[in-house]
Amino acid sequence: MTARPFVRLNMAMTADGKIATSTRSVHTFGSPRDARHLYELRAASDAILCGARTVEETNATLGNGGESFRRLRLRQGRAEHPVRVIVSGSGSFSPEARIWSHRFSPIHIWMGPTATTARREALQSRADVVWSSPTDPIDLAAGLAQLARDHGIRDVIVEGGGQLNDALLRARLVDELHLTLCPRIFGGRTAPTISDGTGIEHLTEAPGFTLKYLRRHGDELFLVYSRGT
Description:
Blueprint: E1 6-14, H1 32-43, E2 47-51, H2 52-58, H3 67-75, E3 83-87, E4 107-111, H4 117-124, E5 129-132, H5 140-151, E6 155-158, H6 162-170, E7 176-182, E8 209-217, E9 220-227
Parallel strand pairs: 1-6, 1-7, 2-3, 2-6, 3-4, 4-5
Antiparallel strand pairs: 7-9, 8-9
């Protein structure tokens, strides 16, 4: 078992790098081919990692995509559904979120040390696993390591949002980057991008990637990058 799982980050973005509108009222704008690509990546992953806000705003359940993808997972020697890991640093993830009513696979919650006792206890009563980071912000490397060590997770697919992506990229924890470039422009300085959050100050600090794959489907471009230096 490796020290941590292999991490893929998958995002659809507009031509100006946005992943939602400025009001966050539009999150899904890719083609059916892009949706299929998402489920193909989930089928190749033991777990899905997602930020709490993204799960709440999109009413996500983080499922396997249906019967054909269930069979594909089984052929690969995986469980029928991926483990679902939700990052909620403050522990404020809603107890009313839609995902709680879909218990087809384990739900893990990652939270930071600043989460209140009440929030921690509320999530412990619902989640299958609650992991507390020793540091604030959450130590994502340690979280990934415990997924491999304690739960046998080999591959993780990350599906946002921008702040989680940013933290993973700055920590050099993304091994492969999948981007679908969609022929739309959202604009707006407050519209979320694929990597919000702290960001970097100097070019030398920017994580580098190498283009592995490029294919056009209709008006969309599917890009795959591997981690560089």
